[in-house]
Structure formats: C-alpha cells, structure tokens
Amino acid sequence: MTDLSRKTTIAGGLALGLTMAGSAMGQDVTIRWALHPGAEADAVINYFAPKYEEETGVRVIGEILPPNQLRDQMSIEAIGGTGRWDLGYHSPGWFGSFVDHVVDLTPFIEATGFDVDAYPTVTLRQSIRGILL
After folding, report:
1. Which residues does the chain have with pLDDT short of 70?
2. pLDDT value at position 50?
3. Which of 76, 70, 16 is nearest to 38 (CA)?
4. From CA 35, how far away is CA 50, in angstroms rounded?
5. Which is nearest to 72 in space by CA: 90, 60, 45, 92?
6. Letter string b/e over residues 104-117, b meaning 16 or more CB atoms within 10 A of that residue's CB
7. How far is CA 65 from the centre of its chain?
8. Which residues on neighbouring strands pair with residue 109, listed in sequence order?
9. Which run of H or of E encompasses 127?
10. Strand pairing of 87-89 and 59-64?
11. All domains in the chain, ordered by first residue
C-alpha cells in the first residue's frame, strides 16, 4: 500500500466511522479504535479525534499497540467478540487473518449518503471477498 493510499484509507475509515456515529450526536457516544503505530495513528489521536469530538461531542479513543501485540489482541477480540474496539487499523498484510470478522461498509455508506467519490480508485477497490473495506 502506498503512503498516499494508506493515508487516504485511514482518513476515509475515520471519516466513515465518524459519519456513522454522527447520527448519535447529543448522546454519550465513544468510538474505540485499535491502531497500528505510526504517523497515521498519531494523526488520529492528535488531530482527527479531538477535532471530531469538538464538532460532534462524539469521543474517539485510539489505542496504539506494538504490531505483534496489536495482531494478537485484535485476533483475540475478533474471536471473542468482546467489543473492546469499534474499529481497527492494522498492517494490510493481516487482512487474511481477519477475513471472517470484516464488516461490509456498503450499507453504512448507502444509509448515510457518504460520498466516496473523493477517494482514489485504489482505495475504493480495497475489499475482501467483495466486501468493501
């Protein structure tokens, strides 16, 4: 994944996740996000999350874990379904590990009218078994 598509993916994931949560404005809502360390995670925690909370009141908590711990913990959470995180951002090489735990974003995109046209084609083609990531 190129740096541009990685940044676009993380921004798109945050925008979509936060757009879906936006309908809950005025309620006590928190989105918990598991993050792979790096500039993208830092941007979520230091810029996007505070800005979104300021605009909507929806709190975003990012939890950055070292890569090996993140993979293990995300696997445990996916299998156990404990709800520790609402979103996960991990290495693209791990997609196969989570194929049975991917949520198709298409219904959310359609329900909210989220405009995906702003994203590069490469981002919009990211899918597993036809499920839009």
Report:
1. 1-26, 91-96, 127-133
2. 95
3. 70
4. 16
5. 90
6. ebeeebeeeebeee
7. 15
8. none
9. strand 127-128
10. unpaired
11. 3-132 (3.40.190.10)
Question: What token pair was written down for 107?
Answer: 């219904």
Q: Are 39 and 46 in contact (CB under 8 A)?
A: no
Interior CA angle at 15 toward 57 and 37, to 5°?
95
Residue 7's pLDDT is what? 45
3-state secondary structure of 78: helix
**What pLDDT does 128 receive?**
60
Question: Between helices 49-56 and 3-22, what is the axis angle to 10°?
Answer: 20
Question: What are phi and psi for residue 30, nearest 5 degrees?
Answer: -130, 130
Token pair listed for 66: 């070292």
Q: Where are the alpha helices (DSSP H) in 23-93?
A: 39-43, 49-56, 67-80
Identify the H or E element spanning 19. helix 3-22
pLDDT of residue 4: 43
**Tokens 């979104």 sit at which residue?**
52
